[in-house]
Design brief:
By secondary structure, the chain is of the alpha/beta class. The chain has helices at residues 55-62, 77-80, 87-93, 103-112, 114-117, 176-179, 204-214, 230-234; strands at 2-7, 37-42, 45-49, 69-71, 97-101, 129-133, 138-140, 143-152, 155-162, 165-168, 187-194, 202-203, 218-222, 241-243, 249-251. The strands form two sheets. Strands 7, 8, 9, 10, 11, 12, 13 and 14 form an eight-stranded mixed β-sheet that branches. It has a seven-stranded mixed β-sheet with strand order 6-5-4-3-2-1-15. The structure holds zinc ion (3 copies).
Length: 252
């Protein structure tokens, strides 16, 4: 399994518009973070988690030529606004791209992108997609995917587990039942925005507590704000924990 970090930034992205802080002005490319998303290549399938705001640029940078399915964590702007750029993939194959999420996520996407699902004149260049609500383990091709229900503040959203990989972003709390779905991980990718606590996201100490509990072999932080400098924070983390950055590729 190959995982490409397409984007590792929080909702604003880094640099933040108009910000002159050290991280936003940094020359270290690992401090340049587009909105969070990953591409998973497994069993000849290309699975995307979320279509971030910069999805088109991310797809060009990673050289993506096909997408077999999209798994949505939730319908916040930073995770969905690249949705329209899925159209090139359906145009190329003539096949609808299935996209998965919990009931609220799918219902909200049908609203936010209502033009996609309305019958309009032919030739409009809309993405051909198929919404699918999931509330338990499902399969894409031969690949087994388990949604991991987590809380983003009060909002119930999904992380996903595929084999020994789990991707959980925009999470402030995990129910016990979800912790049980996260044992024996080789890689945990976790949204961690800053050192200070936050009402709807995980901060560094909470993340390290979770890591100590789940004991994945490797943990990568994503969805990072401009409050964390890559080199500085990375050097303070335990050996099995590191900050991800745009373009990072790992194999599992
Ligand atoms: Zn987000
Ligand atoms: Zn800044
Ligand atoms: Zn969110």
């Amino acid at each position: 399994m190959k995982v490409t970090f397409l984007g590792t930034g929080t909702s604003h992205g880094v640099p933040v518009i108009g910000c002159d802080c050290e991280v936003c002005q940094s020359k270290d490319p690992r401090n340049h973070r587009t909105r969070s998303s990953i591409l998973i290549e497994v069993s000849n399938l290309h699975l995307l988690i979320d279509t971030a705001t910069e999805f088109r640029l991310q797809a060009l940078r990673a050289g993506i030529t096909k997408i077999d399915a999209v798994l949505y964590t939730h319908c916040h702007a930073d995770h969905v606004f690249g949705f329209d750029d899925l159209r090139i993939f359906s145009q190329r194959t003539g096949q609808a791209v299935p996209f998965y999420g919990n009931y609220d996520t799918i219902a909200e996407m049908l609203q936010v992108f209502s033009y996609v699902f309305r019958r309009t004149q032919v030739g409009g260049g809309k993405p051909l997609v198929e919404p699918i609500i999931v509330d338990g383990t499902f399969h894409v091709g031969g690949v087994t995917i388990t949604p991991i229900p987590v809380y983003h503040g009060n909002l119930p959203i999904y992380g996903y587990r595929i084999g020994d990989l789990a991707y959980i972003t925009d999470c402030s709390r995990l129910p016990q039942s979800s912790l049980r779905l996260l044992t024996g991980l080789k890689v945990l990718i976790l949204g961690v925005i800053r050192y200070e606590p936050h009402p709807s996201h995980m901060h560094v100490d909470a993340a390290l507590e979770l890591v100590a509990r789940l004991k994945p072999e490797q943990t990568y932080f994503t969805h990072i704000t401009h409050l964390l400098d890559h080199e500085e924070v990375n050097s303070k983390m335990p050996q099995s924990v590191s900050l991800a950055y745009d373009g990072l590729i790992i194999t599992i």
